[in-house]
Amino acid sequence: MSIPLRLARWSEIHALVVLVATAFVLAGASLWSLIAAAAVSFAGFIWTCRAGWPRPDRFDPANALTTARLAGVLLLPAFATGLALAACAIALFALDAVDGWLARTLGVTSEFGEYLDKEADAFFMLVLCLLLHADGRLGAWIIVPGLLRYGFVFFLMLARPRALKERRSTRGRWIYFGMISALIAGFTPFPLLYRPCVAAMSLALVYSFAETMFDLYRAVPAARES
Predict the structure, then answer these.
(1) Biggest CA pair distance of the chain
(2) Domain boundaries along the sequence of the chain
(3) For the whole prediction, is pTM greater than 0.70?
(4) Tell me, what's the pLDDT at 1?
(5) Regarding the domain delimited by 3-218, which CATH topology (the fold level of the hierarchy) does it fall under?
(6) CA nearest 18: which of 5, 34, 42?
(7) More confident call, 223 vs 158
(8) Distance between alpha carbon 58 and the CA centroid of its chain, in Å?
(9) Mean of the pLDDT values across residues 125-142?
(10) Could you please report the per-residue DSSP string of the chain?
(11) How open is the CA angle 3-15-75, to the nearest 5 degrees?
């Protein structure tokens, strides 16, 4: 199995793991059950897809930084809610721009790094959404934007569009930036400010995924292996 297909297959399995674990959390299980399931899934990804590392002999600094950022996301529920959690989330968010810059500077960009980065971003958003809901700051609807990535991957797994993976657009990146910023603002004591911002960015995120899905279906067909 080629590296691109192996990465795509892991993304599908990971989406199922996260969706099932999130369902258990919403049914009353501890958020740490989702954290544990995601940690095992990400560890499996890093090891089983090691042939896709930019430098097969060692883990490069850019992906190591992304992994450290992911570890911080996995530990977010350990922080007190409110401004302390917001400060930690801001620090993790700031690192998101550094790992990509580091990969380009060192010449170690790769599909492996792209998958690790976007899945770490998606899990960051989901954890923030679940924490906001658990703290009573936003209603159950906030879980929807957190699960969009995983529902999207699950749908594509069944529908099999023409392209193997989505194209990351500049507009999509800005929408992600706005969504995370709004979610972090949700941990401040200003509900009249963050609630409309989170709602607006959630709608923008839905639009972004719809646009991406359209792009996948009009793309040139990608070669697939069995």
Answers:
(1) 52
(2) 3-218
(3) yes
(4) 67
(5) Four Helix Bundle (Hemerythrin (Met), subunit A) (1.20.120)
(6) 34
(7) 158
(8) 24
(9) 96
(10) --HHHHHHHHHHHHHHHHHHHHHHHHTT--HHHHHHHHHHHHHHHHHHTGGGSSSTTS--HHHHHHHHHHHHHHHGGGSPTTHHHHHHHHHHHHHHHHHHHHHHHHT---HHHHHHHHHHHHHHHHHHHHHHHHTTSS-GGGHHHHHHHHHHHHHHHHH--SSSSPPPPHHHHHHHHHHHHHHHHTTSS-HHHHHHHHHHHHHHHHHHHHHHHHHHHHSPPPP---
(11) 100
Cβ 133 vs Cβ 190: under 8 Å: no
End-to-end CA distance of the chain: 8
d(CA 124, CA 122): 5
- Please tell me the predicted confidence (pLDDT) of residue 219: 59
Residue 201: count other Cβ atoms within 10 Å of its Cβ. Answer: 21
Residue in this structure with the two tokens 């170690």, named with its chain if needed: 108
**Token pair 């991406």 is at which residue?**
212
